[in-house]
Amino acid sequence: MKKSLSLTEENYIKAIFQIGTTPESNVSTNALADNLQTKPATVSDMIKKLSHKKLIFYEKYKGVTLSASGSKEALKIIRKHRLWEVFLVNHLNFKWDQVHEIAEQLEHIKSSELVNRLDDFLGNPTIDPHGDPIPDANGQVQLGPSKLLSEMTSHENGIIVGVKNEDPLLLQHLDKINVRLGLHIEVTEVNDFDQSIQVKLADLGTMFLSEKITSQILIAKNL
Amino acid sequence: MKKSLSLTEENYIKAIFQIGTTPESNVSTNALADNLQTKPATVSDMIKKLSHKKLIFYEKYKGVTLSASGSKEALKIIRKHRLWEVFLVNHLNFKWDQVHEIAEQLEHIKSSELVNRLDDFLGNPTIDPHGDPIPDANGQVQLGPSKLLSEMTSHENGIIVGVKNEDPLLLQHLDKINVRLGLHIEVTEVNDFDQSIQVKLADLGTMFLSEKITSQILIAKNL
DNA sequence: TTAAATTTTTAGACTAATCTAAAAATTAAT
DNA sequence: ATTAATTTTTAGATTAGTCTAAAAATTTAA
Ligand SMILES: [Mn+2]
Ligand SMILES: [Mn+2]
Ligand SMILES: [Mn+2]
Ligand SMILES: [Mn+2]
């Protein structure tokens, strides 16, 4: 039986997964240090360990990518994180801006039985409170097509399906201006100078959104 | 703001609380080493640290007792442990013999907001699945009078209100012989030789119970 | 009340995770 | 194509938590 990952190792694996885009872009030492709020020297050490454990592929000075077993571990952690976020919002009445920090702790609880029962208790949700897809017990994620609101042009429309970032300040702001998942949105005007746009939100009227915000909002085609 | 306790420190504080009886019996180094599955030398070191942090009172070679702040911390951890056990049994359909290990992890999740919301979600339970009282948000526990089944004499009767031990093998055995919390029990005979007793359980008829079992079962007066 | 047994503490060492400072390799700019 | 800037790795320390072995204190027994 292979020994289970330490909390720190889990956080590295998750960070590598989340920084790395598809397909396999090599994740740099500095990017990891940044993401994990640690120093490059520390990352270099940990990378050697994870590489030795065959969780990542590593060539000196070339960055890392997850191996198959590394990806599997990452997906398990992300699954737990997102299921717990659903629990916190749907059953404990937390707001979507309050759950990420707590889920950062809960995602490390080790018990596959617990995760699967939690999944059932929650009704096998497919997305978390921020619109992120929840991997199933086999690590499969199904992810509908979507694009950033910042990439849409005049008269394009769709449904708000996610936010890319879980910064509480962003989420609270979106709450305040009534931008929520599931709402229909239509771009009415794009300002070429600063990329700010005007949108019509469901039946709540029109509003202006800065590029800082539109670059964090995911829209799906309104089929 | 005082830095929060490490997972290890929390486990020491909890162990000291649970070993120490009322009033303040000094908890020995060996008892702690035993309970925490570690070595006396390790305990000696940690004791110095906890003493320095004023969580325990310590005199060399004399054992330790919790300070007021130490007790407060212990009660917070125990509250979390027991609330999570209620969640696991009542909402995720775990059996009472399956929850202790998982609760050992969940009890270290740090968020008072989470604990209090969980408490409300569960309906502010006063006991956990093993009959142990759950401290409230202020650390208050209310504990009805009870005695061990092993201390009862012929014709005494009462209600089964708790088990002292969470060993899965004990709990599974109690399940198998239909010994559950809330049942009425009457001692029909005590065997002086081996302290085994015969009992009448609710309307399930009579059975024999060894001292090993009766010494783990708590009975309250049937008022 | 000495001696023996037990408990507890100290001394010294190890691992995981971290840091700073400096060296080495890579990448970008002249 | 050299040089300069940046990134990454190594070297050497540090802290928390742990261990073994040995010394010191306490408790128990003769
Ligand atoms: Mn999150
Ligand atoms: Mn999320
Ligand atoms: Mn328990
Ligand atoms: Mn319990």
Please, could you describe this protein's structure?
The structure is a homodimer of 223-residue chains. Chain A has 223 residues and is α+β, with helices and mostly antiparallel strands. Among the domains of chain A are: 7-66, Winged helix-like DNA-binding domain superfamily/Winged helix DNA-binding domain (Arc Repressor Mutant, subunit A, Orthogonal Bundle); 146-220, Roll (SH3 type barrels). Chain A has 8 helices and 8 strands, in the order αααββαααββαβββαβ. The first copy, chain A, has helices at 7-19, 29-35, 40-52, 68-90, 100-106, 112-121, 168-176, 211-214, and strands at residues 56-58, 64-66, 147-148, 157-163, 184-190, 197-201, 206-209, 217-221. In chain A, the strands form 2 sheets. In chain A, strands 3-8-4-5-6-7 form a 6-stranded antiparallel sheet. In chain A, helix 2 (29-35) crosses helix 3 and helix 4 crosses helix 5. The first copy, chain A, is globular, with a radius of gyration of 19 Å. The N and C termini of chain A lie far apart (48 Å). The mean pLDDT of chain A is 95. The interface between A and B is medium-sized, with 18 and 18 residues. Bound molecules: manganese (II) ion (4 copies). One manganese (II) ion binds at residues 81, 85, 100, 103, 166 of chain A.
